[in-house]
Structures are given as structure tokens and as C-alpha cells.
Amino acid sequence: AQSVTQLGSHVSVSEGALVLLRCNYSSSVPPYLFWYVQYPNQGLQLLLKYTSAATLVKGINGFEAEFKKSETSFHLTKPSAHMSDAAEYFCAVGGEGAGGTSYGKLTFGQGTILTVHP
Amino acid sequence: DTAVSQTPKYLVTQMGNDKSIKCEQNLGHDTMYWYKQDSKKFLKIMFSYNNKELIINETVPNRFSPKSPDKAHLNLHINSLELGDSAVYFCASSRKRGGAETQYFGPGTRLLVL
So what's the pLDDT on residue A2? Predict the structure, then answer.
């Protein structure tokens, strides 16, 4: 079964500082990995995804993530935080195994709330 | 133009009632999903339909019954509501079924059972 663990339920940074949100996955097959962002009282919006092409994936709003198979990680980074980045971030793995019951479902991590201080 | 829309946005009801949540997508996608986000913000899939066929059915009480009248709509009916059903329910859609497919989420329906 696939699973995702996000280390740190809360991360706090100063405006302009580096943002690092950690995600580790468990999967018996090469994974498809996603980062979604959820602003208060809104739905989830895709930031970026890894689908076995380049290991460094660039997303929207200046975010990027690097797939590291040896570390089973897919950490999300942004060089300089902005106040508008304050939100909750979810890492997810896409279910594989065509025809199986997990095929196509997203399994989410617990979420990380990012706070940005002025 | 809203890609994935849900109605209602808020739903407050009494225990024991029956309620429905509607979802529509105008993206031309084949696959739709229902997710539940609990009070701790944990997101878990409930159901998925592909071309109106049920393909994912997680361990959800049978009080929850999804219905897909066509590819663009996926509704969720809940019978005999319980306090524990209070949550945010998200509908999502993807172009097709597959682990690499991006899922597009609706704004959520906030259900409070009193």
C-alpha cells in the first residue's frame, strides 16, 4: 500500500526566508507524487507533480520539489517566502496498478500549515 | 468559469436527516471523486466514478451512496446523518483514471451535523 508522511504539521518562516516542507513516501512501484495547496475555506489547488520525467519539478508561485528515490522524499521548497504563501500544503501519492482498487486514487499526507511572518 | 462546482457550500442539519451534495465539472473529464476532510484536515478518498461506473469504493458506511447520472455529475447522498459525518466533502475530477492524472478539486461542502 502506498503512504505519505509529512514531517512537521506546522512550519513558520519569515517573509523572504527559504520555505522547506518535507514529504516522504512509501510505494512498491515508482510513484507519482503531487503537492497541493489549500487556502482557508477553499478547495485544493495543484502546485506541482512528479510523473517520472525530470526529478526537479517546477510548479506555480515559485515552488519546486525534488524527487529523491534513494531518500524516498519529495520535499517542497521556495527560495523566498511571501505573505501570500500562508496556507496548508498537502503531499500526495497517486495510486498505480491499472485495474486495481487503488488505481487513480490520491493518498494524502497529514498536511503542513505554513505561516509566514512579516 | 468554475471548473468543479459543488452545492451547497454549507450544510447544517440535524442527526438522522438525509441530505445530498451535488457536484458538476465542466472540464470534459471522465473520472470524478469524493473525498472527506475531517476536523484534523486529513483527506481521504471515499468514492470514484469513471464514465459513470463506480471504480473506487473505500470502506465507507453504506449510508453514503454516490450517484453519477452522467460523466459531468457526481452526487453524494447521505442517509441517517450522524455527528461523525461532520466534515468538509470535496468533489474532484481528472481527465481519465490513472495515478499520474491531476485531480481538480471543487470548493468543498462544509457539513455540520447537530
Answer: 85
